Amino acid sequence: MKIVADLVRGKNADQALDILRFSQKEASRKLEKLLMSAISNWQAKNKDSNVEDANLYIHEIRVDSASMLKRIRPAPQGRAHRIRKRSNHVTIVLNTKDNTQSK
Fold it and tell me: Which of 11, 14, 23, 99 is the least crowded, having the fewest Cβ atoms under 10 Å away?
């Protein structure tokens, strides 16, 4: 998940969606859904603004580890191997680029 997050960090929202849509990584599907949710949340809070005109970009994206499910898989000769099913927390912060500052 961290590898895919590094691909889209600092990119425009439209460009990040394109990168995630055509990426072969499994985590890109989940991040694409999360980014779409973040864009719709921004749109719900800013009803008077247009998403296309806002020039949204990914200001911050964090991937932190979460709880781990521990399972046991049978192994030869009566032994057991531990399997750790990892999960994570992802935080996306969107921001708008001001055209007045970039001259």
Answer: 99
